[in-house]
Please model this.
Amino acid sequence: MSKRDYTLKQMIEMKACTQCRLCAEVCPAVSASGEGMLSALSRMKGLRQYLKRRPALLRRLFGEAGLSEEAQKKFGDDVFRCTLCGNCQEVCPVGIGLKDLWLSLRTDMVRSGAGPAKIKTIRDNLSESRNVFAEDNAERADWVDGMRDAPEDRYLRDKAEVVYFTGCVSAYYPVAQRIPMDLVRIFDAGAIDFTLMGEDEWCCGFPLLGAGLGEMLGSFVEHNIDAVLRKGAKKIVFACPSCYRMWREYYPRRFEIFHASEFLLQLVRENRLPLKPLQLTVTYHDPCDLGRGAGFFDQPREVIRAIPGVKLVELGHSREKCRCCGGGGNLEMFDPALSSAITAQKMEEVMATGAQAVVSACQQCVRTMTTYAKRKGVPIEVMDLVQLVHKSIVGQTS
Ligand code: SF4
Ligand code: SF4
Model:
C-alpha cells in the first residue's frame, strides 16, 4: 500500500468522516449481503488502519497499529466487492469524494499485490484483445450481421459527421446487441450521417479503472482518439454511460460527445423521429454512471414522455437515490453471487411498481436485469431507452 495513490485531499477527507453510517444504510452491497464490512464507513476504517503502517505523516495522522495478514487479505478482496454506484458519496453529509477514493484504493491494492486474482484476467484481456471479454476485436461490429435490413457498407463508412462508439457489452453480448441494432435504425430514421468504428474501436478503458489498472489507460485513449479523427467526425454518441463518462472525464476534449439519451432528446425536440403511440406502462431505472455520475435524470424521462401512450411510473428509489442494478464496478467478475443478490433487490423494487417494462439507458443495466429476469422467470420486459424509442418508431407493442 502506498500513499502515492491518495491525494492530500483524500487523506484529509478520510479524517473528516463523522461515522454517521448514512453510507451504510444506502449501500446495495451491504443490504444484499448483510455484511456491514462492505460499507464505505468500514472500508475507510480498514484503509485508515492500513495506512497507519506507513511512516511519518500518515502515522502522525492516524496513530495506532495496522491490520493482521488475514485481515489484509480480506480487506483486499472486500475493496472490490462494491459496484462503484456512488450512492454512498451521494448521501455523505461531509462531502467525501468516496467514488474517487474507491478507485484510488483499487489502484493501491493492485500495486501492492493485494487485489483479487481476476485482475490479471482483466489486464490480459484488455492488453491482448482490446476488449474486456477476450473476444476477437475484429468482430466488434459483427452484431450487424444479425440485421436483415443492414446496408451493404454495414455502417462502416470512411468518413462521417458522427461516430457511434458502441462499447464492449453491446458489441459482444447477444442480450445487449438489440441496443446498437435499434440505435443505428434510429439514426437512419433521423437521417444522421454516422459510422461505426468496427475493429478500430477499442474498449473505452472503464474496466481498467475499475480494476485499479488506470496506468494502462493512456494507450486506449490515444488509440480511440486517433480512430475517431480518421473518420473526420465532429461528434460521438454513446449508448453506454460508462463509455460516455470515460470520454467526458479521462479523454481530451476533441469532439462533441453525447449520451444517446440526450442525442435522442435532441432528435425528438427537432421532430425528426416519427414516434407512434405505444400502450405501455414503464418504470425507469437511472443507471449509476448516467444519473448520479453525469447528472442526466431529465433527458431520458423527457424522451419516454414524448412517446404517445407510454405511462411512466417511478421506482421507490429514483433519480439521485436510484439503487444499482448490480452490474457496476466489475462486481460480476469479482463476486457474481453478490452481484446477483443486488439485482434481486432491484427487480423486487421494479416489480412493485406494477410496470410492464423496466427501461434503462445503459447496456450493462439491461444485460444484468434481462439475464436475471430470464433466469428467475421474472415476468417483466427489460429494455434500453433506445429500444423503447425504436419500438415507437416502428409501432410495435412487444
Ligand atoms: S459505491 Fe455503492 S456499492 Fe460501493 S460502497 Fe458506495 S454505496 Fe456501496
Ligand atoms: S456517510 Fe460519510 S461521514 Fe457518514 S459514515 Fe459514511 S463516509 Fe463517514
The radius of gyration is 21 Å. The chain has a mean pLDDT of 93. The chain has three domains: 3-116, 119-266, 274-394. Residues 280 and 310 are 5 Å apart (CA to CA).
